[in-house]
Input
Amino acid sequence: MALKKKPVTGMKDMLPREMEIRDYVIQLIKDTYKTYGFVSMETPCVEHIENLCSKQGGDNEKLIFKIMKRGEKLKIESAKEENDLADGGLRYDLTVPLARYYSNHANELPSPFKALQIGNVWRADRPQKGRFRQFMQCDIDILGEETDLAEIELILATTAMLGKLGFQNFTVCINDRNILKAMAAYSGFKEEDYDEVFIILDKMDKIGMEGVAAELCQMGYEREQAEAYLKLFEEVTPDVKGIRDLKARLGGCLADKTAAGMERIISCVEAAKECEFRICFDPTLVRGQSYYTGTIFEVRMDDFGGSVAGGGRYDRMIGKFTGQDTPACGFSIGFERIVMLLLENGYQVPKQGGRKAYLLEKKMPGEGILKILALAKAEREAGKQVLVVNMKKNKKFQKEQLAKDGYEEIIDCYADSFAQ
Output
């Protein structure tokens, strides 16, 4: 039976053109975030199955690549359910592993801890454009900071990085889970139904207000109640004024602290941003992960038609490990989607020091090769990228390919030119 050349479904091989962009973006991310005081850290790709299945990851917990127990621990005949056979799994995001990491090392880390983590994650999802089963995530998180300074720093750092890649026409959408709850309480929904109501609300961009109203009615609520709830969303404006108007309307259902914090985040980001983008209040923003406890945000790219980054506050996750809640807030970049957009737009990695290629005639003597290698060494030390390769029969095509790869200077090296 012939071996398979294509990668496993939902995963892909990386060609040099894409790898050049990926490497550049990763370095830019690290350099940019470090200017904001974030420090690199890393967690294993395999997590305890109990941590991954702790009901904090929403639908992602249905997509875990589970790892079977090994050796004598694997007892298939006595297993009563699937999890009896697994004790680990590939991480589906970087947030749950970070919470475990912090709970294990808190005494060795500064407070607040500004974490930068870049790594692959795995989800047994249906592959589609911009979505894979193995993909890279780039997260920044601030742990131990209870004020909204964490949200402000996260938004400024992430948008600064996107600006350095030349992205424009993007919007940071921001909301708070407590605003969602206040609107639901004001509209008379039962507290035990909130999660289901929010799941339906999250479909707004797909099924519209009419579809949301129909599904709320299917839950057993009156049509008039569903329409009154949705009218709140229609009438609110996507700015600081909208937050103030909503607070006045919701009255005691919405805490002053929540509304004031949302205003402060928007105002501070507008004043301190490093590149041009929009920030707007979006009361329909839900974000699916159940671990979010407060502020939530997304970056939506007009050219992409969807979000390329998202995050929020998750103040109760670390407490699941330690028994004591710790303020936590994070922002994750959709690395694969960003790379895809750069590739589609013909993005060129900025040249640093230039690129030069030496084409060696195949009968070049050893002395001549040594001279060329010495030249290449000196130029590399000066910061130039230098390629030394043998000359091909179709030299014209070879030079065209090299020029396409960004080599600005191509030198033909013949044996008689380098004779002793």
